[in-house]
Q: What sequence folds into this?
């Protein structure tokens, strides 16, 4: 078979830009765990800037949210700890430098372009306060997540779980996560606008600014979708939201406090004592025990998260482009290693597949490597400059970026997947269970019911072995239930801290 370089044709030979991008996806032959070079194995296109910008905005928002959640939770859980915004931004910058170089530019950009970038585990953010209050330690949690993730990837468990999840179950999960995430961002931006004060110090004058930003965003997003330019949504809508907020008089709320330079990259500063950094010291046995159920829960949520991102590629890529689809097991391997390394140097992120990069990249019909390299450079530049982080974490920018870049596309993809009545039934059960319990248990239980013909396609069990129908789904349900009971997520359960 001819190499990518020999099969490449200039864009001028195609009738449309879309046809050229389709051809690029079909001729690529990524080298797994071998050096991939620009020109020989892939090319940079201007479309790669879109997922790079989108991923940069998204990861700044997500990292800062994670670190603020840790700071708040640890401050509440320990009398001797007081952590705030400055700590959160500094730790975020640590996470944006070393992991970006090692696992974005080098790993996904040059050595395994089929492994999606290791980003942030968005669904875990609301649980971080509970993790801190349960007595967990960020470093202990990272080590456990890394070990469990590596075990799952070694035995190809991630790709198997993806295959066992039908379109109905996956669609229902996407719809629920997209809807709840969207409502959260809408509430945040409206709460921000209601808290603004005018120059005359009359609170509430700018209370409608959040609504105005949301209306403008919906109109712009709809127009981009109409002209088939939805991959521009994150940068276009985020910049528009920034301009509307400034023109509307909210500029006094935007403060630049982060100075240019490098954060402290010495792991001893962060973990070596209880007087600086995280102020926790190194983890002990109790910390590992308290972190265990949350680590199981995080890794259990990886498969549906990875599945959702790969689905966007499958929906937008042309036929015969399977070689550039993200490999679930390789992505899991990179996420596991990145989780341990990133936290060891002082970070606190909980890692998963990078959705704010993959979703725009898939919509723009671009493969992983070129955009990954650009994104890594942008992320490191922002971490050094400092002041762009103050803009990216400002509620109008952060909320709109997450809304149009992650949650609305998730809803749309989920709806497209449940067109058939059987899939709609499985999706409905999955959504209902997620409302009653949580998305992880809903995914596990709906997958068990679906694979045994109790919901969805009645002929599906005929295509599966006994191991795939019963053993694996029941095992997943049991693990999820035990983990959730251990951390006290069910009403009336005490959680592991009560037994320490």
A:
């Amino acid at each position: 078979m001819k190499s990518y370089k020999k099969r490449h044709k200039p864009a001028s030979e195609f009738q449309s830009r879309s046809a050229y991008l389709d051809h690029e996806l079909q001729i690529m032959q990524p080298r797994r765990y071998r050096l991939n070079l620009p020109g020989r194995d892939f090319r940079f296109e201007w479309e790669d800037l879109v997922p790079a910008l989108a991923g940069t905005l998204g990861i700044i928002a997500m990292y800062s949210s994670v670190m603020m959640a840790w700071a708040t939770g640890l401050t509440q859980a320990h009398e001797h700890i007081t952590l705030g915004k400055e700590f959160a931004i500094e730790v975020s910058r640590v996470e944006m430098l070393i992991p970006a170089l090692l696992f974005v530019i080098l790993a996904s950009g040059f050595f395994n372009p089929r492994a999606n970038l290791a980003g942030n585990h968005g669904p875990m953010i609301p649980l971080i306060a509970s993790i801190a209050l349960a007595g967990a330690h960020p470093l202990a949690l990272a080590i456990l997540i890394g070990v469990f993730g590596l075990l799952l990837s070694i035995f190809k468990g991630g790709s198997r779980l993806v295959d066992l999840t039908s379109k109905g179950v996956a669609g229902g999960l996407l719809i629920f996560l997209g809807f709840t995430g969207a409502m959260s961002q809408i509430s945040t931006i409206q709460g921000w606008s209601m808290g603004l004060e005018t120059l005359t110090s009359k609170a509430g004058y700018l209370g409608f600014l959040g609504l105005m930003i949301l209306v403008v965003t919906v109109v712009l997003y709809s127009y981009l979708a109409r002209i088939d330019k939805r991959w521009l949504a994150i940068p276009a809508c985020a910049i528009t939201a920034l301009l509307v907020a400034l023109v509307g008089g909210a500029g006094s709320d935007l403060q630049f406090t982060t100075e240019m330079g490098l954060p402290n990259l010495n792991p001893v500063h962060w973990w070596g004592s209880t007087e600086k950094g995280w102020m926790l010291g190194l983890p002990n046995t109790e910390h590992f025990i308290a972190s265990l159920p949350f680590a199981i829960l995080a890794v259990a949520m990886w498969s549906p998260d990875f599945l959702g991102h790969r689905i966007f590629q499958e929906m937008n890529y042309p036929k015969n482009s399977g070689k550039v689809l993200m490999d679930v097991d390789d992505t899991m391997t990179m996420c596991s290693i990145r989780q341990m390394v990133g936290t060891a140097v002082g970070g606190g992120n909980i890692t998963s597949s990078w959705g704010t990069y993959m979703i725009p990249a898939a919509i723009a019909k671009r493969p992983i490597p070129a955009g990954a390299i650009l994104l890594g450079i942008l992320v490191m530049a922002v971490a050094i400059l400092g002041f762009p982080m103050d803009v990216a974490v400002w509620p109008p920018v952060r909320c709109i970026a997450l809304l149009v870049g992650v949650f609305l596309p998730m809803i749309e993809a989920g709806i497209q997947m449940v067109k058939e009545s059987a899939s709609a039934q499985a999706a409905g059960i999955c959504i209902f269970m997620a409302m009653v319990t949580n998305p992880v248990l809903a995914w596990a239980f709906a997958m068990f019911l679906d694979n045994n013909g109790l919901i969805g396609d009645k002929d599906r069990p005929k295509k599966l072995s006994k191991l795939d129908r019963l053993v694996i789904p029941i095992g997943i349900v049991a693990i999820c239930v035990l983990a959730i009971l251990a951390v006290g997520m069910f009403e009336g359960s005490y959680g592991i801290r009560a037994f320490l």
